[in-house]
Amino acid sequence: MPRIYYKSEQLAGQALDQTILSSSEFDEIFTQAEHRLYEFSTPESGFFQRLFGKDNACFCYVQLSKDGILYTTREGSFFLPVSLIFYDVDDASFPSLFYFIAKLGDQLELRQCQAGQGVQWFQIPDLHDEVTDPKIIHKVKNSLSALKEKTAVEFANRPLHEQSEVEVDFEECSEEYPELDEHLKQAYAQLAEICLKQHPRKSVALDYIHQMKNTDDDFFSSIGQLMDDLWQENIRLFVSMDWKQEVTDLEWHLQSMLKDNWQLELTLPDLALLSDDAVVSEDGVFEQYHQVLLKQGLKLGFVDMDSDSYVFMLHPVDEIETVKKAVETIGYRYL
DUF6630 domain spans which residues (predicted)? Predict the structure, then answer.
């Protein structure tokens, strides 16, 4: 899921017209929302659109990001605003095209951003721009109407004293988590030393590991937080892929891991023969890539997280036992 970054807590352009969305309406959405991500279907266009005389199209996805925090790293200081993020195609950590309404102080603004594969988080402040297309503004308004209607129903049906995902997420993120046990940090560091052996920024990953907190509970996990942190740094120690993702995404991840972690460029199998929209869960997909990797003395190691996603690393074949032991130490089964 994308997050929004500014270089400071200031509007980058013009404040949003309050007839589109007021600051109080914005706050109310977050108060009433039950989830962090909402999906909307787009109505038929063409004949039916002309018949009814208006376009009711919404964005397919609306994400609620309740950050509102300052973030300082080697790349500089950034502000992550509370924001509503709109997009149609979930094709990258930062989608190829997305729009957002951010709250800065007591004002809102609507921005658009062209990103996609390879874009790193710290580039986002320089990539977003104002929205001037009336059709996009109309689509945002439709999406807001649908979102407000859905969240209002959720809020009305919510049992008294029960928290929403967004509220829990915000409170959990605000807690001061305890340090991760040292023996667990050592296991993560060992995996980084093995799997990021030739990565030019391996030390960055080790710094993150050294600062890891114990975030394991019903909503978060330490390994998930580490994956998110390293993903923002464009470091692939672990890669997580949903079973429905296309094989082209898997190939992109593997090529990036080979190049960054091992300084290798390999010709991987052409899986277009399977189908134009083949997904990673189809029989033989991982195995075909695996055979090529084995010839280089590398293999895919999977972390069983009891989910419908694949979480994997790329490590030397002769390090299987060491990697397996480290994965078991951090609390998971190695596959």
Answer: 227-333
Q: Does one domain contain both 126 and 158?
A: yes
Q: At residue 333, what are phi and psi to the nearest 5 degrees?
A: -95, 135
Residue 27, domain extent: 23-172
244-282: b or e for each residue (b if 16 or more CB lie within 10 Å)? ebbbbbbbebbebbbebbbeeeeeebebeebeeebbbee
Angstrom distance (rounded) from CA 256 to CA 60? 29
Q: What distance in Å separates the CA atoms of residue 64 and residue 70, rounded to the nearest whole number?
A: 18
As a whole number of angstroms, the distance between CA 76 and CA 162 comes to 38
Give pLDDT < 70 ranges for the chain: 1, 42-55, 72-74, 159-176, 216-220, 270-277
Contact 213, 179 (CB under 8 A): yes
Residue type, 335: L
State residue 174's pLDDT score: 43
Beta strands in 167-251, from DSSP E residues, in sequence order:
239-242
Tell me: do 61 and 113 sit in the same domain. Answer: yes
| Backbone angle region of 301, left / alpha / beta, with phi > 0 → left and psi within -120 to 50 → alpha | beta
